[in-house]
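Quick one, tokens below. Sequence please?
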């Protein structure tokens, strides 16, 4: 049987092109169907701040008043709480040491807890007003961002010993680590983004992110070296993680406080206080398409992403009742 190889290659190429197109449609279609999947009631009163998802341990840690609520993200049931964290803000997970780290802003400290038992292990003194906190796997260190002191307190995750303090030159708002020895921090009032060498604790770069004003939230696409900033000037800014150049901007809602990036679906999410999550698709590292605004609840400005299920967890308060809104694709 004689085979026409040129014709076969043409057909194969057409199928490959069709497969790419179908994949893109599936991604865009899934995003357009993001909706509220569940609302999980949480007892107690008071406000909330950050949510942290441990996608390996299958738990979400939600800052709530003066304690942390712990949620099983598969069963969507509360499994415990960590009290004694006055002015709680952020939670960082160091799974290789079985430890978590909570910033207690009113106590000027970081509370260390055991991931299995949720019991307190230690309390580490920081600068004034610790807020965001990040674990850097490259150095196995924890960086607590002190919003009132304009510094970062750095600790070894293994034993809580102090490594040093970094003078940031402004009030830090959020931070991410790239796993290669860089920690990025945005300074809201200054409109700047810092790159810190996590080994030497030296500030390598201090970049203006104009036209982004008051950068508040931050997420990272590590392979493509892109940072996604949520700006209180109602913008998303995409920044090159090596040069600090602003690559692209796009409008989002008002009073953003959380940003997340899903490397599997190439989606970027921004949660804003006007009660929406704005979703973009990363078509390429330098090109982005707006996809959807998902209605949540007014004031619900924080959020976390589960990389396994691709669900979002958004704290909310309605008529004085606290709950976690779960958003996902059908």
């Amino acid at each position: 049987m004689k085979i026409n190889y040129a014709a076969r290659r043409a057909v194969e190429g057409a199928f490959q092109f069709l497969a790419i197109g179908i994949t893109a449609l599936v991604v865009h279609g899934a995003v357009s169907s993001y909706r509220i999947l569940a609302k999980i009631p949480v007892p107690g009163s008071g406000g909330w701040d950050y949510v942290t998802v441990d996608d390996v341990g299958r738990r979400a840690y939600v800052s709530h008043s003066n304690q942390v609520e712990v949620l099983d993200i598969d069963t969507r049931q509360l499994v415990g709480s960590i009290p004694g964290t006055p002015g709680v803000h952020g939670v960082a997970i160091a799974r290789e040491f079985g430890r978590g780290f909570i910033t207690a802003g009113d106590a000027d400290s970081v509370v260390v807890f055991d991931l299995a038992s949720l019991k307190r292990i230690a309390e580490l003194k920081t600068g004034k007003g610790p807020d965001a906190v990040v674990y850097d796997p490259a150095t196995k260190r924890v960086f607590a961002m002190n919003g009132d002191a304009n510094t970062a307190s750095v600790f070894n995750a293994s034993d809580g010993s102090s490594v040093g303090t970094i003078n940031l030159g402004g009030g830090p708002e959020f931070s991410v680590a790239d796993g290669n020895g860089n920690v990025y921090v945005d300074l809201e009032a200054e409109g700047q983004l810092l790159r810190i060498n996590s080994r030497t604790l030296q500030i390598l770069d201090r970049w203006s992110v104009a036209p982004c004003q008051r950068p508040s939230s931050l997420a990272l696409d590590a392979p493509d070296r892109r940072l996604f900033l949520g700006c209180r000037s109602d913008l998303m800014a995409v920044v090159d993680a090596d040069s600090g150049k602003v690559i692209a901007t796009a409008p989002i809602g008002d009073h953003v406080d959380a940003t997340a990036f899903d490397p599997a679906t190439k989606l970027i999410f921004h949660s804003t206080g006007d009660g929406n999550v704005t979703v973009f698709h990363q078509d390429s590292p330098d090109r982005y398409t707006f996809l959807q605004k998902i209605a949540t609840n007014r004031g619900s400005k924080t959020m976390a992403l589960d990389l396994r299920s691709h669900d979002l967890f958004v704290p909310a308060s309605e008529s004085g009742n606290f709950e976690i809104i779960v958003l996902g694709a059908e």
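The chain has one helix and 28 strands. The two ends are 47 Å apart (CA to CA).
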